[in-house]
Amino acid sequence: MKTNDSPRASDGVADRVGAGPGRWGWLAAGVWLFYLAQPLQSIAERQQGVVQFLGFLNLALFAASYLGFFGLMRRMARQHLLSSWQKGAYLALMLALCLLMIPTAGQTALTGLVYIGSVAMMLLDLRVGFAFVAALLLGAEVSMRVVPGWTDDGSYGFAIFLGALAVFGMRRAIQRSIELSATRKDMAELAVQEERNRFARDLHDILGHSLTVITVKAELAGKLIAANPERAASEVADVESLARAALADVRAAVAGYRELSLAGELVSARAALQAAEIKADLPTTVDEVPEENRELFAWVVREGVTNVVRHSGAKRCSIKIAADQIEVLDDGKGPTPGGGASGHGLVGLRERANQADAGVQVGQAPGGGFRLAVKVGL
């Protein structure tokens, strides 16, 4: 297995450390501080007076350093300020606080190594993280065997291993999510570029021959104006005829792009969604849609599916069609707060809908995601 991250993936993982559901994601990480109850109890039972106070203070600082990682480090990662020595210094600080707990908490202070291992797996490159966790595991096992009064029950080493393994799985999941998002974006951009190339090829095929002949005939007419005016006039007439024919071909090509087929757009939508690894729930027939509504509904399918593939981050897209209404729904991130429903595609769709006496609705889909609907006869 390849364990080293690409720079892009590592940056994304660092940026998402502690992100959770919004800016309060560090609270989810803070739940795991429950396991510090063991050294807390040990300090409370074994120490008194100033020593006990110092033990509690040291434990609180360790907990703060763990939570601080999910705030301070994430903010610094976004600004690309994290260097190798800063990462090492932060882990060294946590390790020092853990070791300082030993005089007051005894063997239970080894619980802190679980948190340090988890932070290391999120912060360091995977190979370095594995080595660091292995060193922590070895240190815990050796210390339980050589320190007088400590017992080797295997629980601390096992906890360090499980904590690191869980964070490794989370990190790989984040990396896969980043790669999938990048792939979807690349595929959407590739689809747009391919459409541009196809249109350019069509225009070249339509105009290439006609313009070449027009150029040749225009040059010949220029040379014949003085020597043979009648022949020059004939060549100019041919140039005019060729120009009109080329213009008709361009208009026919543009009309072919503008007049869409609802059935054809549904087929294209299914292919685009499958290419983007989005589950498609599309109708298989359009018989119930009146002929006068099909072109408008085809534009809705094209605009809606394009937005799903390019912007939504969805895993599922469904299209519902009735005689007078069409809906495109996804389970993605939904409408952008404060608007975001005024892109050029939607502006053009509204113009077409107004011409067909129809209304456009955009907003959040039931259960989350984005909903685009057009209803005729509003």
Automatic annotation (TrEMBL):
InterPro entries: HATPase_C_sf, Sensor_HK_TwoCompSys, Sig_transdc_His_kin_sub3_dim/P. The chain crosses the membrane at residues 20-37, 49-69, 89-116, 128-148, 154-174. Pfam families: HisKA_3 (PF07730). Keywords: Kinase, Membrane, Transferase, Transmembrane, Transmembrane helix, Two-component regulatory system. The lineage of its organism: Bacteria, Bacillati, Actinomycetota, Actinomycetes, Propionibacteriales. One of its GO terms (cellular component) is membrane. Residues 195-259 form the Signal transduction histidine kinase subgroup 3 dimerisation and phosphoacceptor domain. GO terms for molecular function: phosphorelay sensor kinase activity; protein dimerization activity. This is Two-component system sensor histidine kinase DesK.
